[in-house]
Amino acid sequence: MATYALQIAGLVLGGVGMVGTVAVTVMPQWRVSAFIGSNIVVFENLWEGLWMNCMRHANIRMQCKIYDSLLALSPDLQASRGLMCAASALSFLAFMTAVLGMKCTRCTGDDEKVKGYILLTAGVVFIVTGLVVLVPVSWVANSIIRDFYNPMVDIAQKRELGEALYIGWTTALVLIAGGALFCCVSCCNEKSSSYRYSIPSHRTTQKSYHMEKKSPSVYSKSQYV
């Protein structure tokens, strides 16, 4: 029962991580305008994402424009787009693999050892996905902070950390936690199965005892002759 609860918890964390990965990929709030110095125009907010940039006017109207070319992006955003697309595909693959390895799933049979290997694969893929999400989010955050404190960068070009980065860090931790749970479930299943096969059952022991008691030895047969 405890193992099944861990499976459910891991699947929920994996599902949340999958949704978070897709959300971070499509969100435009990777870089947001910084209101510092003379740049205090608070009626306009500029958002820069992986696919588009948006201009929001006084919290009323928002205009978004998709990038005309991939080369128009900075190198960190170019790499982040590819990594986040790969992470979205990996998270979906890990989630579907975890569903196949669940105890309540019947299409993969009832062999707990096979399902343990399936859950182990899903857990490893979830952990890899979390690391893949962590790399672009941290890379973009590092470039934002570096440019923010660089005196050579114009104040109008400086940006702050957007909401997508914070959601990305949270999503990476959720994915890693879900993967760790699936790995623990797989290890517990493997240990329980090995323990079950190593200890003989009470019925087998009792049956062997009666067989030894009923069959007389060769020495006793020679005495009767």
UniProtKB/TrEMBL annotation:
InterPro entries on file: Claudin, Claudin_CS, PMP22/EMP/MP20/Claudin
Any one GO molecular function term: structural molecule activity
GO cellular component: bicellular tight junction; plasma membrane
Domain of life: Eukaryota
Transmembrane annotation, as ranges: 81-105, 117-145, 165-188
Keyword Transmembrane helix tagged: yes
Any matching Pfam family: PMP22_Claudin
Cell compartment(s), UniProt: Cell junction, Tight junction; Cell membrane
Keyword ATP-binding: no
Annotated membrane topology: Multi-pass membrane protein
Primary location class: other
Keywords: Cell junction, Cell membrane, Membrane, Tight junction, Transmembrane, Transmembrane helix
Role, per record: Claudins function as major constituents of the tight junction complexes that regulate the permeability of epithelia.
Family statement drawn from the similarity comment of this UniProt entry: Belongs to the claudin family.
Protein's recorded name: Claudin
Gene source species: Eschrichtius robustus
